[in-house]
Design goal:
The structure is a single chain. The protein is α/β, with parallel strands linked by helices. It has helices spanning about 15-25, 40-45, 60-70, 75-85, 100-115, 125-135, 155-170, 285-300, 350-360; strands at about 5-10, 30, 50, 95-100, 125, 145, 150, 170-175, 180-185, 190-195, 195-200, 205, 225-235, 245-250, 260-265, 270, 310-320, 325-330, 335-340. It has an 8-stranded mixed beta sheet with strand order 5-6-4-14-15-16-13-17. It has a 6-stranded mixed beta sheet with strand order 8-2-1-12-19-18, with helices on one face. The relative contact order is 0.19.
């Protein structure tokens, strides 16, 4: 392994996490990132670790993978914080999914029954019970679901820590170094073509998020079906008289759009996020920001007086079935780790541990076997 050259295409938390684990094992690892390492979807995310809140009846394999990754988060946090002497904002206060309008209660009951049918750890709360946990909630909140095991992490701190850990282990990093082509000969990956020329590699890992399908050289049959899904977000500054500690989410399929509010230890309150099929457009617009503020105000009226300190947008890498694409491909030594959509931060530990294990041993762990690229084969 020490003599093998590994190139990772993409420097978000997925690429950094895999690179860190491989560098720890003594591999020669280089990351090529098209822009600035760690400043794409990883930086734009909300940091929620919410397999329950994101659960869907048609995505049971993804739910299982998400729960397995959440189970490994304490180990991941301890390992990363010990190695970098940084805190990454992991919080275990839990999540409240709230209902405000009369129709919301129907949606909540439907979600609650689904969670129970799936054997998930949830608790039904009245509006008053929810306000005992979070006093800033609107008096119009009629009911809530408490997801005690849906946690959060500060994704920006985690990204910074992963960069530090990766480089400390000898990993090489190239910012503003887009990979133009993956070079394949006789069914075997040979390296990549960058602005600096051809870079040879024994193993290539494609972890380029929503740009994964844009890189030349891949056989048409295995181009990953990953698209950009835009999310606009904003951050407020909480005050001592208007603090929340749990993640708060409004129910899905409501108007205005469902929102989430994620409190940070530094007093920031992250509010997100729009879901827009706009290609690679990252422009902020008045409508998106208005809907976020409207939804957040309905949930927590006290935000009206809070300073608005940041607005931004990011591009989630959404696969055609909303689940990640992980593992080997028909091209020898070409590995995929992309398409994590809304769950990139949540799935970082399991992806990093299992994909690095695959590369170190040559064997695909059962954990990631359902997420192979061949599930999209027309045959």
């Amino acid at each position: 392994m020490k003599n093998q050259k590994i190139i990772i295409i993409g420097g978000g938390v997925i690429g950094l996490g895999i690179g860190w684990q491989l560098a720890k094992a003594g591999a020669d690892v280089t990351i090529h990132e098209r822009a600035e390492v760690g400043r794409g979807a990883s930086w734009a995310a909300g940091g929620m670790l919410g397999p329950i809140a994101e659960a869907h009846i048609d995505e049971l394999d993804l739910l299982k993978l998400s729960n397995q990754s959440l189970d490994r988060y304490p180990e991941w946090v301890d390992e990363l914080e010990a190695e970098t002497d940084m805190r990454i904002g992991y919080r275990a206060e839990g999540t409240l999914i709230i209902g405000i309008q009369p129709d919301d209660k129907y949606q909540l009951e439907h979600a609650y029954n689904l969670y129970n049918d799936l054997g998930l750890n949830v608790e039904w709360l009245s509006g008053d019970e929810a306000r005992k946990i979070e006093g800033a909630l609107s008096p119009y909140v009629t009911a809530a679901i408490r997801c005690e095991t849906d946690h959060q992490v500060d994704n920006r701190l985690m990204t910074q820590a992963l960069k530090r850990a990766y480089e400390a282990r000898g990993g090489e990093m190239h910012h503003n170094s887009p990979v133009k082509k993956i070079v394949i000969e006789n069914g075997n990956v040979r390296g990549v073509q960058t602005l600096e020329g051809f870079q040879s590699a024994d193993v290539c890992i494609l972890a380029a998020g929503c740009w994964s399908g844009q890189i030349d050289g891949l056989p048409e049959t295995i181009i990953p079906p990953v698209r950009p899904v835009k999310g606009q977000m904003l951050a407020l500054q909480m005050r001592k008289d208007m603090m929340i500690s749990n993640v708060i989410r409004t129910v899905k399929a409501r108007y205005p759009m469902p929102v989430y509010l994620v409190p940070r230890r530094d007093g920031r309150l992250v509010v997100g996020a729009t879901t827009e099929e706009m290609g690679f457009d990252t422009d902020l617009n008045v409508g998106g920001i208005y809907e976020l503020l409207h939804g957040a105000f309905e949930a927590v009226p006290g935000i009206y007086e809070l300073p608005l300190i940041e607005t931004w947008s990011g591009l989630r890498p959404g696969s055609s079935d909303n689940a990640p694409i992980l593992g080997k491909t028909p091209v020898e030594n070409l590995i995929y780790a992309t398409g994590h959509y809304r769950n990139g931060i949540l799935l970082t530990p399991i992806t990093a541990y299992e994909v690095s294990k695959l590369i170190l041993t040559g064997e695909t762990p059962d954990t990631i076997a359902p997420f192979h690229i061949d599930r999209f084969s027309k045959e």
